[in-house]
Amino acid sequence: MTQHRKGLVLDFGGVLTTPLLPAALAFERRDRLAEGTLLTGLYLDPEGIRLTEELERGTLTQTQWNEAAAGRLGIPPDNLMGRIFADLRPESSVIAAAAAARRAGIKVGILSNSVGLTPWNLYDGYDVEKLYDALVLSEVHGTRKPEPEVFRLVLEELGLTAEECVFVDDTEQYLPPAAELGFATVHAVEPARTVAALEALLGIPLTDKDPDEGPNPDLDMDRVTP
Length: 226
Description:
Rossmann fold, 43% helix, alpha/beta, globular, 6 strands, 11% strand, 2 domains, DNA polymerase, domain 1
């Protein structure tokens, strides 16, 4: 008999929001940067990676990151993080699925590698402290995904074990470390597939689709680890 999970841990940016990459590309167009400048200069370059990891750990403020990153890109630093992700919007179908899971008795938490809370707050308007059972932001605890400690922190807040939970992230490299701890994992690529995978792992409906419709035939189970 299938053992359904009773806890759900969600990444925030790119899971509960629209994807990060299109927002970053739109920023490049607005600031008249060549396509790929942001990715190459900040997320593939060793120094850019170091700056972002320090930001996620809370050892660098968002303002400090803005200054350093803007210097590397040759653009103004004012509210750079907010400018980069200005086009992010709530991913309503996944947010609704998380709410449906909570109504069904599933404990739902957020585990996010944060990007600083000022001057721009990624989480504004999402009621993250009210609508979820746990909220673990990397900068608050000085540890970040994929380090085991940050996963243990969210499990502690939920009062569950990894074997009882599903972990969802749009960054594929964070999934194997979570699976090693015992989580079922889902790579969030497309919202409808994410929700369908969660329905299978949690054993409950999370949408208003016809109950006689059956499982989603397009669900790519290669993106799901039970």
